[in-house]
Predict the 3D structure of the following.
Amino acid sequence: MSDNPIARHFFNGFIRLHILYHAAKEATFGAEMAEELVHHGYRLSQGTLYPTLHVLERQGFLRSHRKLIHGRWRTYYRATRDGRKVLDEARQKLQELVAEVIEDQDQGFQKIRRNRNRSRSLQAATAAPARTARPSRAKAHGYKTESQRGRVR
Ligand SMILES: [Zn+2]
């Protein structure tokens, strides 16, 4: 992972989401989580991972329990109800983020978007003014709608 502190600042959020995602699927423990994160391209020391797990637990997003494995205690983490709630909220925000940041770069996405816009303008041409579908969701996230930004894609 990047040693740049500013880059780390962003990636730490991704890491917390990864942890939350896996802990929502099944109970996981530090070493397993570290290995999982390596697969995603994040290499972080135990000195970083464990404090992150503890913070998430203190904030009420994870709950831990200890289990005796081959004569040694291992701490397992599971997402709490609050953790799952945050994960759901994050999913929606990720979709927004991907839609903007990734789609802008990706040829395949751009094609999908062009087709979507074409069918949208066809709809707009044939149907009565119905401009409430997406803006209401965007508003719920506190974002400006595309028309408010004066940029309709
Ligand atoms: Zn993962």
Notes: DSSP finds six helices and three strands in the chain. Strands lie at 28-29, 62-69, 72-79.
